[in-house]
Amino acid sequence: MVKTDYDATYFNPKDVLECGQIFRFVPFGQGYKVFTADKACYVYTNGVKTVTECEDGDYFYNFFDLGRDYAAINKKAKEYNVPLLTRGSELGRGLRLLNQNAEEMIYSFIISQNNNIPRIKGIIERLCSALGEEREFMGEKYYAFPTSEKLAQMPAEFYKGIGAGYRDNYLAETSRKIAAEGIRELYTLGSAELKKKLTAYTGIGSKVADCISLFGFGKRECFPVDTWIEKLYRDDFGGTLKDRNKINLYFCGLFGEYAGYMQQYLFYAKRENM
Q: Which of these, 76, 74, 51, 71, lies nearest to 61 by C-alpha position?
């Protein structure tokens, strides 16, 4: 087991995990157990330090984006002089964007659309329990996220049976396509072309593609627009656009390479204010 500690100022596990970018985590001990692909980590805050305990330290160093200077990103947020964004950067100072497994993100965010967090987590947990490889971490068993090849073997009825609802066919068709073609090409694409390719998969629209690009492919210039973002666009930016794709272009133009980080700060602040 590799145990490593980091300055907790810009690494708060609660802020990182409970902001909607990840669904596979559970409260444990002083913090959380986090599951990604076929790996697990225990993360918690102890005084001024945030501690990770895992078997693959390099993987989780990258997963939690610990090589990046979030003090500089936080400072950049304040330079825009947007009150809600400044508040978000202060309240959510411990936020970090995760570098997650891309295939897991594709299926997780297909499941997430028009859904709530507890239900999303339940569907994914049942998916992993049914098809994932059994593993053990800190004396307890867990299940890896299934491979696309494993998912592709299942009919749409299976996905409906674990609670995916109308998303059953999306999961069945997209997993078959990925199992047949792979996603290696997607890593070579810029954000605009990646979004175009992702929306060609069954069940992936613009917002879901932006989430996958941001959290699964590290495209930090992406800015997912959901109900919360649409509301704050009107309330806090005085926006009048109705089309979410145009709202997306507005924010991407405003924040550029920092768009994904700013989206998380804004989302955090708006959610806390409600």
A: 51
Q: Could you give the CA distance from residue 81 to residue 67 in angstroms, rounded to a whole number? A: 27
Q: How many of the other CB atoms lie within 10 Å of CB of 54? A: 23
Query: Cα 156–105–230 angle (5° rounding)?
Result: 100
Instruction: Give, as one character, the DSSP assignment of residue 133.
Output: P
Q: What does R_g of the chain's alpha carbons equal in angstroms?
A: 18
* Residue corresponding to tokens 């409600």: 274
- Alpha-carbon distance of 104 to 48, in angstroms, equals 32
Task: Spell out the per-residue pLDDT of the chain, length 274, in tens.
Answer: 999 999 999 999 999 999 999 999 999 999 999 999 999 999 999 999 999 999 999 999 999 999 999 999 999 999 999 999 999 999 999 999 999 999 999 999 999 999 999 999 999 999 999 999 999 999 999 999 999 999 999 999 999 999 999 999 999 999 999 999 999 999 999 999 999 999 999 999 999 999 999 999 999 999 999 999 999 999 999 999 999 999 999 999 999 999 999 999 999 998 877 4
CA distance 209 to 110: 9
- Do 211 and 226 contact (CB within 8 A), yes or no? no
pTM of the model: 0.96
Strand pairing partners for 10?
Answer: none
